[in-house]
Amino acid sequence: MIHTARFLVSNSSVDQCPKSSLPEYAFIGRSNVGKSSIINALTNNKKLAKTSRTPGKTKLINHFLINGAWCLVDLPGYGYAKISKHERKELKTLIQRYFSKRKQLVNTFVLIDSRHKPQDIDVNFINTLGAKQYPFSIVFTKVDKLSNTQRQNNISVYKSHLLDQGWENVPPLFESSAKTGEGKKEILNYIETINSNL
């Protein structure tokens, strides 16, 4: 359960991120996956992470202090965004440096739009995290926009696709909706379990 959530700092450099040793949980996904909406739903604060009708607005690493005990980290999206090739390259480098440098990072939630078939950009990102052995989970967003049958079919296709990619075990999966609040309890319980084992 999240009792308090407050913005700490935004940075364009990993070296300037908080020096605290508090565990960090990062959220990342394609630019239009609904990341800010999920963060706001998890924290019960509609204004915590800035939502926008223009995909790709998050261009900084945003830290939020949760319950005074851990940090939620809003990372720039990858993929489509109305930015230059140079800016896209800079964001990619920023994200890579965050993963390689932040020892405080204990889990990354990779957000996937549940309405679509596996996209190369998502699968490649997931495979990169796996290859580097960074702990992560997958959160399927916008499940409220699908029927139960469509939802289960799409997620089954995703699981099969990852197994075909060479995964022995599929990472932890969550089904979520910022609109209905589905998945919120499960995600927060997962974070709480990790924290209790640190």
What would you note in describing this structure?
The chain has helices at residues 35-43, 85-101, 120-131, 148-164, 184-196; strands spanning 5-11, 24-29, 61-66, 70-74, 105-113, 136-141, 173-175. The protein is an alpha/beta fold. The protein has a single domain (5-196), classed as 3-Layer(aba) Sandwich (Rossmann fold). α3 links the parallel β5 (105-113) and β6.
Identify the notable features of this structure and list them briefly.
seven-stranded mixed β-sheet; alpha/beta; globular
Strand sequence of the main sheet, in spatial order? 1-3-4-2-5-6-7
Query: What is the CATH architecture annotation?
Result: 3-Layer(aba) Sandwich
Radius of gyration: 16 Å
- Output the number of helix runs: 5
Can you give the helix content as a percent range?
25-40%
Sheet having the most strands? 7 strands, mixed
Order of helices and strands: EEHEEHEHEHEH
DSSP E strands, number: 7
- CATH fold name: Rossmann fold
The share of residues in extended strands comes to 15-25%
Just give the CATH class.
Answer: Alpha Beta
Point out poorly predicted stretches.
none
Pairing-aware structural class of the strands and helices? alpha/beta
Number of domains: 1
- What is the assigned CATH homologous superfamily? P-loop containing nucleotide triphosphate hydrolases
The average pLDDT score comes to 92
Q: Gap between N and C termini, in Å?
A: 18 Å
Overall morphology: globular
